Amino acid sequence: MAGAFENFELTYKDRSHPHGLSNDAQAVAILDRARALVGTGYPGVAITYSANEGQTIALEKAYAAGKYEAGISGANQAQVMHAMESHLGADYTDLQMKAQIAPITTIPFAGTDPVTIVTQDIARIGKQLEAGWVILGWQNQKTVGNPGHPYAIGGGVAGHLPPAVDAVIQNGLIGFAKKYPAPS
Is 184 a member of any domain? Predict the structure, then answer.
């Protein structure tokens, strides 16, 4: 089965969207979609995530060691990822190692070239797609419908990304959406 890239909108709760989803409800929406997709035969599902470099390293190490969680903490998207990891240890144990986080490093360590690291992140996501996984491209009310920046990567804690970094991320994900059509 070929991999697939699915645009995945999560409207978060804020003043202008009072009926948006809480962090926990966003995590459940991700896991419910992952469960449905794995149930159709996909080997796994990963959600894109705007990570700091420490989180990217922790996630890569955890998954390489067969662990479903890396102990993600922080604000905004990190709160959703923390809730997702918590649910994987409780009511979604059937998805351990099948529902993962696909980090894109928007906050690199000092001395790390930001274009190089996001290029590596996009390549890693490409390998997941080649292995038959579904990648959920995280969108929110600020990005959905924006052809130049459709994915919720950068902004928030990461702040405004340098244009070259943003281009690698957005163009990479847009390219995956074209090359790996969403499941029907």
Answer: no
